[in-house]
């Protein structure tokens, strides 16, 4: 689907942010593995990635129904089968484009008394999987992957799970959650030592479900334990809100209110950075919903200054770096992004896709091995171009926001990739008054 987003004269409005992708996956997986009681998940993200997770849980024997609320938003009804209740699936389990589906469900399939296979699209099957095969194998699971156990398809062929002491080589919530899920069914207490804090939605939700997961600074301890099903109201996804934050801040005439955004401190690095950059951003109506803090975020046209983004804040804004790079392009001064080598193994190599895109639009930007250096210009006039996102939904949406801020628009060849995490993205953009062709 080819889409051209043209320069927009004014941006005004209020946006209801769709459900958080990470929390939607976890709500489905954990409740599928919980004791059998029907629960409902509201404000579930109806994106392709989260439906991959729902479909796989169904193929493993979980009864999941999808109903619509009065606003036609899906309510996911899950009837869990318990920790040991999955059945052998009849065919290969399709993870689509979703790394979270693959890595979290790997923890759930490790050490079962049946065979299962996880596979996905071209982008997913080229993303690193040794990072989960290695700890799960150390726990006793039998797992095989393509190219010497490096890539999916992944074959799970039983094994008996024991606890481990695992020092994480990278700060990754997917690896951490994969091990936590396997550890719930292992013998003994598993310890995971993190190098830095990454998103903690698994720990929060499992605790609320009665699982024995405790945390001491960077260390997490997991005791084998059953879980009770819980209803979940999914907060709005700050990673989706990020596109509107940058649009609202960088556009010369704008004012946007983003409703019900999850502001968990393991996710809200972007707010800290935008404040450092002098952005006009206000956090309003803070409250807690099901153990996760949420708020409305109000943004206005701002004069940005450059900043440095590095160290422990990187995992707290990892998915927002492409859109932050666009903001840095309009900031006064040089912004350096460091220690973000994980960007190279996302849905695309996001250092390369972000830098190539912004450079073609006329931004002074250089890639580095673990980030990028951006020489910002408040008077920047982004040039027209036609681009592919390389199957990466966050790059697609970054390109769309660039179109709004450009002089002659931006054409995106594969606009449909936004459906992976934001199915209403294009509709929301035109509701704001953006010109789309
Ligand atoms: C996610 C964790 C992050 C993030 C991804 C979702 C999750 O990946 O990039 O979009 O839901 O746990 P890593 O944990 O691999 O950094």
Structure summarized in a few sentences:
The protein has 437 residues and is α/β, with parallel strands linked by helices. Helix content is 29%, strand content 26%.
Number of helices: 13
Distance between the termini: 11 Å
| Poorly predicted sequence stretches spanning 5 or more consecutive residues | none
Largest sheet data = 4 strands, mixed
Radius of gyration: 21 Å
Overall tally of domains: 2
CATH class of the largest domain: Alpha Beta
Describe the protein's topology.
Blueprint: E1 3-5, E2 11-16, H1 21-32, E3 38-42, H2 48-59, E4 63-68, E5 74-79, E6 93-94, H3 99-109, E7 115-119, H4 130-138, E8 141-145, H5 146-149, E9 151-159, E10 165-167, H6 173-183, E11 190-193, H7 201-208, E12 213-216, E13 219-222, E14 232-233, H8 238-250, E15 254-262, H9 269-276, E16 280-289, E17 292-300, E18 308-309, H10 321-329, E19 333-337, H11 350-360, E20 364-368, E21 371-376, E22 386-387, H12 393-404, E23 410-412, H13 425-431
Parallel strand pairs: 2-15, 3-14, 6-7, 10-11, 18-19, 22-23
Antiparallel strand pairs: 1-23, 3-5, 4-5, 7-9, 8-9, 11-13, 12-13, 15-17, 16-17, 19-21, 20-21
